[in-house]
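Course assignment 3, question 2. Fill in each field.
Student: A.L.
Task: Predict the tertiary structure for the chain below.
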Amino acid sequence: MSVRLGQPSTVENKAGANGLIGTDAVAKAAPDGYTILLTDRGALGINPSLYAKLPYDPRKDLAPVGIATEGHYVLVVSSTVPVASLADLVSLGKSKPGTLRYGSYGVGSMAQINLEALARATGITLQHVHYKGAPPAVAAVVAGEVDLTIASPPSLLGFVQSGRLRALAVGSETRLDLMPDVPTIREAGVAGQPLIPTYFALAAPAGTAPSVVNRLNEELRHALRLPDVVDRLRAMGLVPNGGSPAAMAQIVAEDVDRFATLVKDIGFKPE
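Answer field:
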């Protein structure tokens, strides 16, 4: 994007609190088009239900530019867990309630939200163990410290191929090119969408001129059509999207309501 815009791009990582810190920084930045947010579904759709005093409203304090990519999750279990399918996992969970442990990337993360939703959809109870990020959670499953987790396909592929992890289902509408033998969550017998994909999207501060937002969206969509960009994204397990600002705004609004219901059902109390 920086090449066609004629502007250098500097990436400034502001990690922490499920994306709250970085998202809030952009929400409070000058709406001049020079400060852009790259964030995920959790920071925009889940955080409003996790924090009693969220310093930003994703529906009012940001100007959506567009969803860049979607990232689907794969459900995996340790090779030490005696199951070969999701149905087996559910049977095991029901025969030994509360004994299965899952690793997440933190309280309120997409991993915890999704796995708690899966537990409710299948009628089992899972114990939550949170780690500082996806790689430690995956490593914990490989080591047998916990029984299962979800993560992106590329981060799991080597472990699945070597037999150290067993992939049970993917949270997508169709099977993934990287793991064609792994059934979708629906093929595995679970209705609905208990493994909601994440997304990565661009947004600007609220008040940014529509002409600027539209130009940024145009360049985003152009970049996502470049073959080398598409290849690099797919190698990371990401599916190019390139939707409109209006489409992103609608998804954010729907997510805020959807996750509010889910977070309440799970029993989280806003911090």
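Instructor remarks: The longest strand covers residues 62-71. The radius of gyration is 19 Å.
Grade: pending
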